[in-house]
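Shift notes (night). Ran Archaellum component FlaG (FlaF/FlaG flagellin family) while the centrifuge was going.
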Amino acid sequence: MKKIYFFLALALVVLTQGMVSAQGVLSFEKETHDFGTVAEGPVITYEFKVKNTGNQPVVISNVQASCGCTTPEWSKDPILPGKTAVVKAGYNTSGRPGAFNKALTITSNATPETQMLFIKGTVTAKEAAAPAPSAQEVANSAKLELTTTAFDFGKVEKGQKVTAKFNIKNTGKQDLTVNGLQSSCNCVVHKLTPAVVKPGQSAKLELIYNPQVLQNRVETVTLASNDITGSAATITLKANVVENLAKQSSVKVNKASVPFK
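Came back to this:
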Protein backbone atom coordinates (compact mmCIF):
# COMPACT_ATOMS: atom_id res chain seq x y z
CA MET A 1 0.00 0.00 0.00
CA LYS A 2 2.85 2.38 0.83
CA LYS A 3 4.33 1.73 -2.62
CA ILE A 4 1.02 2.66 -4.25
CA TYR A 5 0.88 5.96 -2.33
CA PHE A 6 4.51 6.64 -3.24
CA PHE A 7 3.91 6.15 -6.97
CA LEU A 8 0.72 8.24 -6.86
CA ALA A 9 2.60 11.07 -5.18
CA LEU A 10 5.43 10.78 -7.71
CA ALA A 11 2.95 10.88 -10.62
CA LEU A 12 1.30 13.98 -9.14
CA VAL A 13 4.67 15.74 -8.87
CA VAL A 14 5.55 14.91 -12.49
CA LEU A 15 2.12 16.07 -13.69
CA THR A 16 2.41 19.33 -11.74
CA GLN A 17 5.86 20.03 -13.14
CA GLY A 18 4.55 19.43 -16.65
CA MET A 19 1.70 21.87 -16.12
CA VAL A 20 4.10 24.50 -14.74
CA SER A 21 6.53 24.12 -17.66
CA ALA A 22 3.73 24.55 -20.24
CA GLN A 23 2.97 28.25 -20.00
CA GLY A 24 2.97 31.47 -21.97
CA VAL A 25 5.14 34.38 -20.87
CA LEU A 26 4.69 38.01 -22.00
CA SER A 27 8.02 39.84 -22.16
CA PHE A 28 7.63 43.56 -22.85
CA GLU A 29 10.43 45.48 -24.58
CA LYS A 30 9.99 48.07 -21.84
CA GLU A 31 7.40 48.63 -19.14
CA THR A 32 7.54 52.44 -18.86
CA HIS A 33 7.45 55.05 -21.61
CA ASP A 34 8.29 58.70 -20.97
CA PHE A 35 6.74 61.07 -23.52
CA GLY A 36 8.90 63.89 -22.19
CA THR A 37 7.40 67.35 -22.62
CA VAL A 38 4.44 67.60 -24.99
CA ALA A 39 2.10 70.42 -25.97
CA GLU A 40 -1.47 70.37 -24.70
CA GLY A 41 -4.16 69.40 -27.19
CA PRO A 42 -3.63 66.15 -29.13
CA VAL A 43 -3.98 62.53 -28.08
CA ILE A 44 -0.46 61.15 -27.81
CA THR A 45 0.14 57.44 -28.34
CA TYR A 46 2.83 54.82 -27.76
CA GLU A 47 2.99 51.17 -28.76
CA PHE A 48 4.47 48.79 -26.17
CA LYS A 49 6.04 45.87 -28.03
CA VAL A 50 5.61 42.46 -26.40
CA LYS A 51 6.89 38.98 -27.23
CA ASN A 52 5.60 35.61 -26.06
CA THR A 53 8.77 33.98 -24.71
CA GLY A 54 6.87 30.99 -23.31
CA ASN A 55 5.80 27.76 -24.96
CA GLN A 56 2.01 28.23 -25.05
CA PRO A 57 -0.23 30.76 -26.87
CA VAL A 58 -1.19 33.84 -24.86
CA VAL A 59 -4.44 35.78 -25.13
CA ILE A 60 -4.64 39.25 -23.60
CA SER A 61 -8.17 39.34 -22.20
CA ASN A 62 -8.19 42.90 -20.86
CA VAL A 63 -6.15 46.10 -20.56
CA GLN A 64 -7.45 48.41 -17.84
CA ALA A 65 -6.30 52.04 -17.70
CA SER A 66 -5.99 53.87 -14.40
CA CYS A 67 -8.12 56.78 -15.69
CA GLY A 68 -10.52 57.68 -18.47
CA CYS A 69 -7.91 59.97 -20.04
CA THR A 70 -5.88 56.92 -21.10
CA THR A 71 -7.19 54.71 -23.91
CA PRO A 72 -5.68 51.24 -24.48
CA GLU A 73 -5.84 49.16 -27.65
CA TRP A 74 -4.58 45.60 -28.12
CA SER A 75 -4.94 42.58 -30.37
CA LYS A 76 -7.50 39.97 -29.28
CA ASP A 77 -5.76 37.26 -31.33
CA PRO A 78 -3.58 34.65 -29.57
CA ILE A 79 0.12 35.52 -29.43
CA LEU A 80 1.92 32.34 -30.42
CA PRO A 81 5.23 31.31 -28.81
CA GLY A 82 8.06 33.39 -30.23
CA LYS A 83 5.69 35.90 -31.87
CA THR A 84 5.18 39.59 -31.09
CA ALA A 85 2.29 42.01 -30.69
CA VAL A 86 1.68 45.53 -29.39
CA VAL A 87 -0.34 47.17 -26.65
CA LYS A 88 -1.14 50.74 -27.68
CA ALA A 89 -1.62 53.42 -25.03
CA GLY A 90 -3.20 56.78 -25.87
CA TYR A 91 -3.27 59.77 -23.52
CA ASN A 92 -5.60 62.74 -24.09
CA THR A 93 -3.62 65.88 -23.25
CA SER A 94 -6.51 68.28 -23.87
CA GLY A 95 -7.30 70.25 -20.71
CA ARG A 96 -4.63 68.38 -18.70
CA PRO A 97 -1.53 70.59 -18.36
CA GLY A 98 1.11 69.39 -15.91
CA ALA A 99 2.87 66.13 -15.11
CA PHE A 100 1.10 62.79 -15.56
CA ASN A 101 1.91 59.19 -14.63
CA LYS A 102 -0.67 56.58 -15.69
CA ALA A 103 -0.82 52.81 -15.39
CA LEU A 104 -2.17 50.05 -17.61
CA THR A 105 -3.04 46.69 -16.05
CA ILE A 106 -2.59 43.78 -18.48
CA THR A 107 -4.65 40.63 -17.81
CA SER A 108 -3.92 37.45 -19.77
CA ASN A 109 -3.53 33.69 -19.48
CA ALA A 110 0.26 34.10 -19.28
CA THR A 111 2.45 33.70 -16.23
CA PRO A 112 2.06 35.96 -14.35
CA GLU A 113 -1.60 36.63 -15.16
CA THR A 114 -1.35 40.36 -14.36
CA GLN A 115 1.34 42.80 -15.52
CA MET A 116 1.68 46.58 -15.36
CA LEU A 117 2.75 49.17 -17.94
CA PHE A 118 3.25 52.88 -17.32
CA ILE A 119 3.23 56.09 -19.36
CA LYS A 120 4.37 59.45 -18.06
CA GLY A 121 5.32 62.91 -19.19
CA THR A 122 4.62 66.61 -18.78
CA VAL A 123 1.97 68.56 -20.70
CA THR A 124 2.69 72.23 -21.31
CA ALA A 125 -0.31 74.54 -21.16
CA LYS A 126 -1.78 75.60 -24.46
CA GLU A 127 -0.80 79.07 -25.51
CA ALA A 128 -3.35 81.56 -26.69
CA ALA A 129 -4.54 80.46 -30.09
CA ALA A 130 -3.00 82.26 -33.03
CA PRO A 131 -5.46 84.37 -34.96
CA ALA A 132 -7.17 82.53 -37.77
CA PRO A 133 -5.84 83.36 -41.24
CA SER A 134 -7.78 85.99 -43.10
CA ALA A 135 -9.86 85.16 -46.14
CA GLN A 136 -7.22 86.86 -48.29
CA GLU A 137 -4.42 84.73 -46.77
CA VAL A 138 -6.42 81.54 -47.36
CA ALA A 139 -7.16 82.56 -50.94
CA ASN A 140 -3.45 83.16 -51.61
CA SER A 141 -2.23 80.01 -49.82
CA ALA A 142 -0.61 76.95 -51.33
CA LYS A 143 -3.07 74.05 -51.64
CA LEU A 144 -2.05 70.39 -51.47
CA GLU A 145 -4.13 67.86 -53.41
CA LEU A 146 -3.49 64.10 -53.49
CA THR A 147 -4.64 61.94 -56.39
CA THR A 148 -4.97 58.98 -53.97
CA THR A 149 -4.93 58.74 -50.18
CA ALA A 150 -4.30 55.04 -49.47
CA PHE A 151 -1.83 52.28 -50.33
CA ASP A 152 -1.78 48.57 -49.45
CA PHE A 153 1.68 46.97 -49.43
CA GLY A 154 0.27 43.46 -49.02
CA LYS A 155 2.72 41.07 -47.32
CA VAL A 156 5.88 42.73 -46.00
CA GLU A 157 8.75 41.32 -43.96
CA LYS A 158 9.36 42.82 -40.53
CA GLY A 159 12.18 45.36 -40.85
CA GLN A 160 11.94 45.50 -44.66
CA LYS A 161 11.84 49.01 -46.14
CA VAL A 162 9.12 49.43 -48.75
CA THR A 163 8.05 52.52 -50.67
CA ALA A 164 4.65 53.87 -51.69
CA LYS A 165 4.50 56.61 -54.32
CA PHE A 166 1.86 59.32 -54.54
CA ASN A 167 1.26 62.29 -56.83
CA ILE A 168 0.81 65.71 -55.24
CA LYS A 169 -0.47 68.80 -57.03
CA ASN A 170 -0.32 72.39 -55.85
CA THR A 171 -3.62 73.97 -56.85
CA GLY A 172 -2.99 77.09 -54.75
CA LYS A 173 -1.29 80.42 -55.46
CA GLN A 174 1.93 80.08 -53.45
CA ASP A 175 4.83 77.60 -53.51
CA LEU A 176 3.97 74.37 -51.66
CA THR A 177 6.36 72.64 -49.24
CA VAL A 178 5.94 69.50 -47.14
CA ASN A 179 8.10 69.97 -44.07
CA GLY A 180 7.33 66.77 -42.16
CA LEU A 181 4.84 64.07 -41.28
CA GLN A 182 3.35 62.35 -38.24
CA SER A 183 2.60 58.66 -37.69
CA SER A 184 1.90 56.76 -34.46
CA CYS A 185 4.45 54.04 -35.31
CA ASN A 186 7.31 56.46 -36.04
CA CYS A 187 8.26 54.11 -38.87
CA VAL A 188 7.51 56.28 -41.93
CA VAL A 189 9.74 58.88 -43.59
CA HIS A 190 9.07 60.94 -46.71
CA LYS A 191 10.79 62.32 -49.78
CA LEU A 192 9.25 64.97 -52.06
CA THR A 193 10.59 65.55 -55.58
CA PRO A 194 10.86 68.45 -56.25
CA ALA A 195 11.05 69.76 -52.67
CA VAL A 196 9.20 72.96 -53.63
CA VAL A 197 6.07 72.63 -55.78
CA LYS A 198 5.17 75.70 -57.81
CA PRO A 199 1.51 76.72 -58.25
CA GLY A 200 -0.15 74.51 -60.84
CA GLN A 201 2.73 72.01 -60.76
CA SER A 202 2.89 68.41 -59.51
CA ALA A 203 5.45 66.45 -57.50
CA LYS A 204 6.20 62.86 -56.50
CA LEU A 205 5.81 61.99 -52.82
CA GLU A 206 7.52 58.82 -51.61
CA LEU A 207 6.61 57.31 -48.22
CA ILE A 208 9.24 54.83 -46.99
CA TYR A 209 7.70 52.36 -44.54
CA ASN A 210 9.85 50.26 -42.17
CA PRO A 211 7.50 48.08 -40.05
CA GLN A 212 8.81 46.64 -36.79
CA VAL A 213 5.68 44.88 -35.49
CA LEU A 214 4.06 41.71 -36.83
CA GLN A 215 0.35 41.41 -37.75
CA ASN A 216 -1.96 43.40 -40.03
CA ARG A 217 -1.06 47.07 -39.70
CA VAL A 218 -2.93 50.25 -40.59
CA GLU A 219 -0.83 53.41 -40.30
CA THR A 220 -2.31 56.89 -40.65
CA VAL A 221 0.25 59.39 -41.94
CA THR A 222 -0.47 63.12 -41.57
CA LEU A 223 1.44 65.49 -43.82
CA ALA A 224 2.65 68.83 -42.43
CA SER A 225 2.74 71.55 -45.07
CA ASN A 226 2.21 75.28 -45.59
CA ASP A 227 -1.32 74.66 -46.91
CA ILE A 228 -3.64 76.70 -44.63
CA THR A 229 -6.82 76.18 -46.64
CA GLY A 230 -8.13 73.31 -44.51
CA SER A 231 -7.21 70.31 -42.39
CA ALA A 232 -3.88 68.55 -42.94
CA ALA A 233 -3.74 65.89 -45.67
CA THR A 234 -3.67 62.27 -44.45
CA ILE A 235 -2.63 59.02 -46.12
CA THR A 236 -3.49 55.48 -44.97
CA LEU A 237 -0.87 52.74 -45.32
CA LYS A 238 -1.79 49.08 -44.90
CA ALA A 239 0.45 46.02 -44.64
CA ASN A 240 0.42 42.41 -43.50
CA VAL A 241 3.74 42.25 -41.64
CA VAL A 242 5.25 38.76 -41.43
CA GLU A 243 8.48 37.37 -39.99
CA ASN A 244 9.79 35.89 -43.24
CA LEU A 245 8.25 35.94 -46.71
CA ALA A 246 10.14 32.78 -47.64
CA LYS A 247 8.18 30.78 -45.06
CA GLN A 248 4.93 30.52 -47.02
CA SER A 249 2.56 27.61 -46.81
CA SER A 250 2.55 25.40 -49.91
CA VAL A 251 0.25 22.86 -51.51
CA LYS A 252 1.06 19.94 -53.80
CA VAL A 253 -0.28 20.36 -57.33
CA ASN A 254 0.72 17.71 -59.87
CA LYS A 255 3.52 16.68 -57.50
CA ALA A 256 4.93 20.21 -57.55
CA SER A 257 4.98 22.52 -54.54
CA VAL A 258 3.02 25.70 -55.22
CA PRO A 259 3.03 28.51 -52.59
CA PHE A 260 -0.23 30.08 -51.48
CA LYS A 261 -0.62 33.68 -52.60
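The first helix runs from residue 2 to 21. The chain has two domains: 26-124, 138-242.
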